[in-house]
Amino acid sequence: MSGEEARHAARSLRMREGEEIAVGDGEGRIYTVALEAVRKEGVRGAIRNVRLVERERPGVILSQAVCRAARMDEVIARAAESGIREVRPYLSPRSELSSLEKAASRLPRWRRIAREASKVARRAWPLTVTDVVDWGSCEDTFRGLSLSILLWEDERASGLRGLLPLVAPRLLGLIVGPEGGFSSDEARILEDLGAVTARMGDLILRTESAGPHAAMVIRYHYGLLEPAGGDALG
Fold first, then answer.
1. Are residues 85 and 134 part of one domain?
2. Which residue range forms the structural domain that includes residue 17?
3. The predicted structure's pLDDT at residue 229
4. Rounded to an integer, what distance in angstroms lies between the CA atom of residue 177 and that of residue 95?
5. What is the number of structural domains in the chain?
């Protein structure tokens, strides 16, 4: 390791020669490495073994309406911690940012937060953040998904748990609206595109917490909160 990674290992983590650490390659492989040299200029070690962590099923895809800067940062960090596979930001009619260009300018920051939060969570497969799409292309939020669930506070009949299939699908989508939520017309548009609406009980969650909270419920439902015998998530 070199650069900022090496400085962080030597100064902040206080790693020492002889220690064994886990190093991920971002594609599911976790290496056990015995450290041979630890300097702020560079860290060197020898690989002792390697294991492959399979991706979790279902992979949760969060389609998140772009919200205010601090709240969107929170969405990304919490998404990484809750095991969400991918965040797909989109501009809704009520998003704070009115232009696709302004929203897209924040992508490097969101991706940096995703990378750092994934490290803290010891994820074998880091969270990815896709390019921002606008409301007119909202059908992209359904790309490749077995099921897309729209979390909507005005839903009166269906709860999240009742919509989850018995057998975990490969990819499961969550759609979260902006601050203030979706209007009825906006929700109907998404339903017409194939989404199903669900409510998470009687509590109203903030836009930055709804997706990560729902993701943890889904992971619990499919038994993904049990220890896997390793030190990294899929």
1. yes
2. 3-52
3. 53
4. 9
5. 2
How many Å apart are CA 213 and CA 91, to the nearest integer?
Answer: 21
Residue 98: pLDDT band (50, 70, 90) is: low
Q: What is the pLDDT of residues 56-66, one digit of tens each?
A: 999 999 999 99
DSSP 8-state assignment for residue 18: T
Residue whose C-alpha is closest to residue 202's, from 163, 234, 154: 154
Q: How confident is the model at residue 209 (pLDDT cuts 50, 70, 90)?
A: very high
User: What angle in degrees, to the nearest 10, is found between the helix axes of 107-120 and 69-81?
Assistant: 30
Q: Are residues 102 and 187 in the same domain?
A: yes
- Residues in contact with 151: Cβ distance below 8 Å, sequence separation at least 6, in sequence order: 160, 174, 175, 176, 177, 197, 198, 199, 200, 205, 210, 211, 214
Same-domain status, 84 and 37: no
- Residue 126 falls within a domain, yes or no? yes
Separation CA 158–CA 19 (nearest Å): 51
In a shared domain, residues 178 and 209: yes
Which amino acid appears at position 31 of this protein?
Y
pLDDT at 51: 92
CATH number, domain with residue 9: 2.40.240.20
Q: What is the tens place of the pLDDT at every residue in 137-148?
A: 777 777 788 899
Q: For residue 136, what are the contacts with CB-CB under 8 A and spacing of at least 6?
A: none
Q: Token match 């409301």: residue? A: 135
